[in-house]
Amino acid sequence: MPKQIPEAFSLIYSKSLETFFAVCQQRSFTKAGDAIGLSQSAVSQSILRLEEMLGVTLFERNVRPIELTPEARVLKEQIEAHAAEVAGTISRIREENALKPIVRAAVIESLSPNIAPSLVRSLARQSNRISILTGTSDNIIGGLLQHQVDVIVSSTPFNDIDGLSRYFLFEEPHVLIMPKALTQRQREWTWHDLQYCGLPIIRYLGQTASGSTIETFFRTMRLEFPMRFEADTSRVVFSLVAAGVGWGLTTPLCLLQCADIVSQMDILPAPEPAFSREIYVITRKGENQGLAESVLKICAGELQDSIVEQLVRIAPGCGPNLKIAVENSLGRRAAWVQ
Questions:
Q1: What is the pLDDT of residue 95?
Q2: Which residue from 38, 195, 314, 334 has the fewest beta carbons nearer than 10 Å?
Q3: Pairing of the two strands 164-173 and 151-154
Q4: Confidence of residue 141 (pLDDT cuts 50, 70, 90)
């Protein structure tokens, strides 16, 4: 949700400014309405009233996505600065009164089972209630924007959404998953070989983060594979590959999520040029930087201490292409796993 700081907006900002900030984030009246529970018409009318009251035009509506005018950018920056200042005051009041916050986090399905215990144990020391949700990246971003969660761990950075702070956590390569009957004929594959291997690719749905990443890579490399089978979960994709229906592409973390199926298929390095998936810790801009730092440190530590070792066992050869955020870093710096 475009509320930069929940308490700040409810205390000092009108619904019109909340709507204005939603449009700034989403660059669309329709998407802004979806985020805050209003119709496209209601959003449009609210912005028109605000423009009439201020005597300026706030958005260039004749382009897609819509653009902020210089006046809108100034207003947005002032709102962010003011909301952050009020949020800081609220945080100090809570600390002075020994009020521990409620922590609400959401983590992608491929990482959640392995990271949730460490998150809960570590965050319990600084909060009095913890909520850990699990879902696809496309689902959990909605919770962050609507203020249902405070921080997410996502395999999509959502660069097209304004008002978010993104911190790199982990990078992992895509690997090839093959039916055993196919690998008995050949152990090393090129993209050209796969196009003529006699079996179709089992795709992730294009609406999923995994599906979107793979399809983007195919378009970039101008690789064409017939569209025959697709599924929305790793377990279904792996089951189809294990049954010999086709081959697929996935990541080591997704394999770890369904370790019971892995022995029924072969895991090979993806052909060159290879491509990777990146995972980020994401918060609303100006909010919860301390929480983001804690989540980043906890997740990076668990990856380094436990999860990476399991990934290397389940997908041999992936180790040199695994990359973990440097501990305590909120930047893009990262360390290769040795």
A1: 64
A2: 195
A3: unpaired
A4: very high
Dihedrals phi, psi of 257, to nearest 5 degrees:
-65, -30
pLDDT tens digits, 180-219: 988 888 888 999 999 999 899 999 987 788 888 899 999 9
Token pair 């028109």 is at which residue? 48
Residues 6+ apart with CB under 8 A from 39: 33
Cα separation of 303 and 113, whole Å? Answer: 12
- What would the two tokens of residue 18 be? 């909340």
Q: Report the C-alpha gap between 91 and 286 in whole angstroms.
A: 13
Is the CB of residue 249 less than 8 Å from the CB of residue 177?
Answer: yes
Average pLDDT over residues 229-242: 93
Confidence of residue 107 (pLDDT cuts 50, 70, 90): very high
CB under 8 A, 24+ apart: contacts of 226-230: 226/200, 227/203, 228/200, 228/201, 229/200, 229/201, 229/202, 229/203, 230/202, 230/203, 230/204, 230/205, 230/206
* 269, HSE (Cβ side, Cα atoms, 13 Å): 14
* pLDDT given for residue 25 in this prediction: 87
Find where tokens 């209630």 sit. Answer: 129
